[in-house]
Automatic annotation (TrEMBL):
<dbReference type="GO" id="GO:0006637">
    <property type="term" value="P:acyl-CoA metabolic process"/>
</dbReference>
<dbReference type="GO" id="GO:0009062">
    <property type="term" value="P:fatty acid catabolic process"/>
</dbReference>
<dbReference type="InterPro" id="IPR003703">
    <property type="entry name" value="Acyl_CoA_thio"/>
</dbReference>
<keyword id="KW-0443">Lipid metabolism</keyword>
<dbReference type="InterPro" id="IPR042171">
    <property type="entry name" value="Acyl-CoA_hotdog"/>
</dbReference>
<feature type="domain" description="Acyl-CoA thioesterase 2 C-terminal">
    <location>
        <begin position="184"/>
        <end position="289"/>
    </location>
</feature>
<protein>
    <recommendedName>
        <fullName>Acyl-CoA thioesterase 2</fullName>
        <ecNumber>3.1.2.20</ecNumber>
    </recommendedName>
</protein>
<dbReference type="GO" id="GO:0005829">
    <property type="term" value="C:cytosol"/>
</dbReference>
<dbReference type="Pfam" id="PF02551">
    <property type="entry name" value="Acyl_CoA_thio"/>
</dbReference>
<keyword id="KW-0378">Hydrolase</keyword>
<comment type="subunit">
    <text>Homotetramer.</text>
</comment>
<dbReference type="Pfam" id="PF13622">
    <property type="entry name" value="4HBT_3"/>
</dbReference>
<comment type="similarity">
    <text>Belongs to the C/M/P thioester hydrolase family.</text>
</comment>
<dbReference type="InterPro" id="IPR049449">
    <property type="entry name" value="TesB_ACOT8-like_N"/>
</dbReference>
<dbReference type="GO" id="GO:0047617">
    <property type="term" value="F:fatty acyl-CoA hydrolase activity"/>
</dbReference>
<dbReference type="InterPro" id="IPR025652">
    <property type="entry name" value="TesB_C"/>
</dbReference>
<dbReference type="InterPro" id="IPR029069">
    <property type="entry name" value="HotDog_dom_sf"/>
</dbReference>
């Protein structure tokens, strides 16, 4: 599905606006919510907005290098208030703690660390050799192609264009994927579908947003499960990110995913994000709840 330039620009502008926070005073901010068709607010939205809230209390000369978050309660599709605690301002490092509330309920908390730009040792894993994004089908087109196979809850917002496009390197069946070896990796290309502002804070917030897409699915692939199958009840529990190098979210990034362990109704998933030139720009990790739904009892 090709999105015309005007629509693409509008969708990206709406996503950028979602990351813009209203100052309430005293390091408190209010943000709006989007409804992408999930029962609760999309976790990536809260990740991006909380990082933006923390970043607004730190000078631009100290970019974020890590964030560690916990999803405490499902969020509603309603405004969210973020409060920032200025934990520490050191010579090289700055620490912030963010709490997200809805109607006095704490739904999320996050700690982020910021650092002055310094020089030191340098190395990284090489980017895997995979097909580039050109010619790959988008996840949106995959959903549309399912037609009547697409479950009813996904037939509205899940087939609408979005400001970020995702293309899987190996586009497996969205409803009944094949069982893969535990050690197998999956990979997704992602980017904003129109140019973004040059503000690095916006790019980092949107990468945090996008990093929640597809990460928990890595723990389902060894079992042939998917979000759309209805067989599993998933929920993100925590999320961590490390920012290594500069990048642009409006250029293609490769998200390489794996899941080293699952057990106790939880799955651990990891992701490495590469720019097209092979630079490792960020890493992510998430543990999520994965509970198998019991079949309905027969009458």
């Amino acid at each position: 599905m090709t999105t015309d330039p005007a629509t693409a620009a509008r969708l990206v502008n709406e996503l950028v606006a979602l990351m813009q926070l209203e100052p309430l005073g005293g390091d408190r901010f209010r943000a709006q919510s989007e409804d992408i068709g999930t029962p609760a607010v999309f976790g990536g939205q809260v990740l991006g907005q909380s990082l933006m809230a923390a970043s607004l209390t730190v000078g631009a000369e100290r970019p974020v290098h890590s964030m560690h978050a916990y999803f405490l309660l499902p969020g509603e599709h309603a405004p969210i208030e973020y409060s920032v605690d200025r934990v520490r301002d050191g010579r090289s490092f700055t620490t912030r703690h963010v709490v997200a509330r809805q109607q006095e309920r704490i739904i999320f908390e996050m700690s982020a660390s910021f650092q002055t730009v310094d020089e030191g040792v340098e190395h990284q894993f090489d980017m895997p050799e995979v097909d580039g994004p050109d010619g790959l089908i988008s996840e949106l087109d995959q959903r549309i192609a399912l037609g009547d196979r697409l479950p009813e809850p996904w037939r509205t917002k899940a087939i609408q264009p979005h400001g970020i496009e995702y293309r899987r390197v190996d586009p497996e069946d969205l409803i009944a994927p094949q069982v893969r070896p535990t050690s197998a990796q999956s990979a997704i290309w992602m980017r904003a579908i129109a140019p973004l502002p040059d503000d690095p804070m916006v790019h980092r917030a949107l990468l945090a947003y996008a990093s929640d897409h597809g990460l928990l699915r890595a723990a389902m692939l060894p079992h042939g499960l998917s979000f759309m199958s209805g067989q599993v009840r998933p929920a993100s529990l925590d999320h961590a990110m490390w920012f290594h190098r500069d990048f642009r979210m409006d250029d293609w990034l490769l998200y390489v995913l794996d899941s080293p362990s699952a057990g106790g109704a939880r799955g651990l998933c990891r992701g490495s994000l590469y720019a097209r030139d092979g630079r490792l720009v960020a890493s992510a990790a998430q543990e999520g709840m994965l509970r198998i739904r019991k079949p309905a009892a027969r009458a």
